[in-house]
Design a protein that fits this description.
Layout (H helix, E strand, L loop, with lengths): L1 H26 L1 E2 L5 E2 L23 E2 L6 E13 L4 E5 L4 E6 L6 E3 L4 E6 L1 H16 L4 H10 L4 H10 L5 E5 L4 E5 L3 H4 L45 E2 L4 E6 L4 E7 L1 H4 L7 E6 L7 E4 L2 E7 L2 E9 L10 E10 L3 E4 L4 E3 L2 E8 L2 E7 L1 E5 L2 E4 L8 E2 L17
Antiparallel strand pairs: 1-2, 3-25, 4-13, 4-18, 5-12, 6-8, 6-11, 7-10, 8-9, 10-12, 13-17, 14-15, 14-18, 16-17, 19-24, 20-21, 21-22, 23-24
Length: about 400
C-alpha cells in the first residue's frame, strides 16, 4: 500500500525537482563544498514580508471624503437647581450647636423656618451688658440693642431679655428663603458629577472593536442625592461660617455633559432638542445659555446649561439631548476602515499590491463615519480594517 502511494507521487516529485533545477540555473550559486544553493527571486521579496509589516489581500480600496458635515450628537443630561438663585445661611456668632432641625440634604424649608439654635458665650455676655446698661446708663441702651441685633437676635427677643432680666443662651438661626436646603460642604459634590469617563470620538480602549457609537460616550451627570448632613448637635461653629445653601425650586436648569471633542463644536445660544429618558415623545426645544469646562472625579468634560422655563420638570430627572454640530475640517471614512489599538488609531494604506498599516489621528465618530484629521486625501485605504488584522501578531504601525 505504501509503495504504491510512493509510485503515484513520483511524477509530481520529478516535476518539482525539474522546476528547482531550472530555478538553480537562473538564480543558483555554488558554495565552497560544491553544493548548489537557491536564491530568492527579487520579484518575490516584497510579498514575503511578515503580516505585521504588510498584508496581501483583495479587499476593495476606498478614498476618504472631505467637506462640511452636519451630524446630530446625543448627550446625557440631568435637571438640577439654578445656582444663580441661591442663598447662604451662616452663623453670626461662634458657639456650639445645641439644636439642629435639618437632618438631610435637599430637605424642603420655608422662609422664617427655624434651622438650628447655637449657644454662644459671647452672646450671653452681650446680653448681660445690655441689662447692665439698661439700669446704669439708659442713654447707651440703643447701642447695646444694635450690637445684639448684629449678633443675630430678633428685636422681640431683646425686649424679652429687658422685660424678664433673663439671659437667652441660645441664638436661633432661621431660613431666609423658600426652597431646598443643602449643606455647604456637599455643594461641590452633589451637582452633576460624571458617572463614567468620557470617550470622545471613541478614543481610548472604547474602540478595540470595529468602532463604537458616540451617542452614549458623553459622561452622565449624577442626580442630586438626599444624603444625611454632616453637621451634628454639639459641634462648634465659627462666627460668619457658611453652613447651608438654599436652592429655590422655581429656578431649574438642565445640564448636559459634552466630551471635549464634541464641546469644541458648541457655542452659547445654539439650539438643541431634549427630552426625558422615560418619554421620548415629550421633546422640547431649548438653547444653550452657559458653557462651563469642568474637571470632576478625574474627568475632563464640558457642561452646557439650558435654562428651563417650564415648571413640570423635577430635580434629578434624566434627559437626552440631540445637538447638531457642524464639522468643517478633516477627512471622513467609514468606521470599519479604522482600527483601534488602545489609544491609537490606524488604517491600512494601499501601496502597489499590498496594504500597509499606518497610524493616523482621528476625531469624532458620527453615525457610521469617523473623522480623520491626518491628511489622507490622496490615499487608497482598505474598506474594512478588521479583515486585515492578524490576531496572532502585534501590528507594527508606520507613522
Amino acid at each position: 500500500m505504501r509503495n504504491s502511494y510512493i509510485v503515484k507521487m513520483l511524477p509530481g516529485m520529478l516535476l518539482v525537482l525539474s522546476g528547482l533545477a531550472a530555478c538553480k540555473n537562473k538564480t543558483g550559486k555554488t558554495d565552497h563544498a560544491g553544493h548548489n544553493e537557491l536564491a530568492m527571486d527579487s520579484s518575490m521579496a516584497s510579498l514575503t514580508k511578515p503580516v505585521n509589516a504588510q498584508v496581501l489581500a483583495t479587499i476593495p480600496a476606498i478614498s476618504a471624503e472631505s467637506g462640511m458635515r452636519i451630524y446630530a450628537s446625543e448627550v446625557n443630561g440631568v435637571v438640577t437647581y439654578d445656582t444663580r438663585n441661591q442663598t447662604s445661611i451662616s452663623s453670626r456668632v461662634g458657639g456650639r450647636v445645641e439644636r439642629l432641625l435639618i437632618k438631610y440634604n435637599y430637605q424642603p424649608v420655608k422662609k422664617g423656618q427655624l434651622i438650628m439654635e447655637v449657644y454662644s458665650p459671647g452672646l450671653a455676655a452681650a446680653q448681660r451688658e445690655l441689662l447692665y446698661v439698661a439700669h446704669s446708663s439708659p442713654d447707651m441702651l440703643p447701642g447695646a440693642r444694635q450690637r445684639l441685633q448684629l449678633l443675630g437676635m430678633q428685636p422681640g427677643q431683646i425686649d424679652q431679655v429687658l422685660r424678664t432680666g433673663n439671659v437667652l443662651y441660645r441664638i436661633p438661626v432661621y431660613s431666609n428663603s423658600d426652597g431646598y436646603i443643602l449643606e455647604k460642604s456637599a455643594v461641590g459634590t452633589a451637582v452633576a458629577l460624571p458617572a463614567s469617563a468620557p470617550a470622545p470620538g471613541g478614543d481610548g480602549m472604547a474602540g478595540m472593536g470595529a468602532g463604537a457609537s458616540t451617542t452614549a460616550t458623553s459622561p452622565a451627570p449624577a442626580a442630586p442625592a438626599a444624603t444625611p448632613v454632616l453637621l451634628r448637635e454639639g459641634q462648634y461653629v465659627n462666627a460668619g461660617q457658611s453652613l447651608f445653601t438654599i436652592y429655590q425650586a422655581q429656578s431649574l436648569v438642565a445640564e448636559f455633559a459634552f466630551p471635549s471633542r464634541l464641546a469644541a463644536g458648541i457655542k452659547p445660544g445654539q439650539p438643541l432638542l431634549f427630552y426625558p429618558t422615560t418619554d421620548d415623545n415629550a421633546m422640547q426645544a431649548g438653547a444653550i445659555g452657559l458653557i462651563e469646562p469642568v474637571f470632576r472625579g478625574g474627568v475632563n468634560f464640558t457642561l452646557a446649561r439650558v435654562y428651563l422655563a417650564d415648571d413640570h420638570f423635577q430635580v434629578g430627572q434624566l434627559l437626552y439631548a440631540n445637538v447638531p454640530i457642524v464639522y468643517t475640517n478633516g477627512w471622513w471614512l467609514p468606521k470599519k476602515a479604522v482600527w483601534r489599538l488602545g489609544n491609537k488609531s490606524m488604517l491600512f494604506r494601499r501601496e502597489k499590491d499590498v496594504y500597509v498599516p499606518v497610524a493616523v489621528e482621528t476625531g469624532v465618530v458620527a453615525k457610521d463615519m469617523i473623522q480623520v484629521t491626518t491628511n489622507i486625501g490622496d490615499w487608497k485605504v482598505a474598506s474594512n480594517a478588521a479583515y486585515l488584522v492578524d490576531s496572532e501578531s502585534f501590528i507594527k504601525i508606520n507613522n
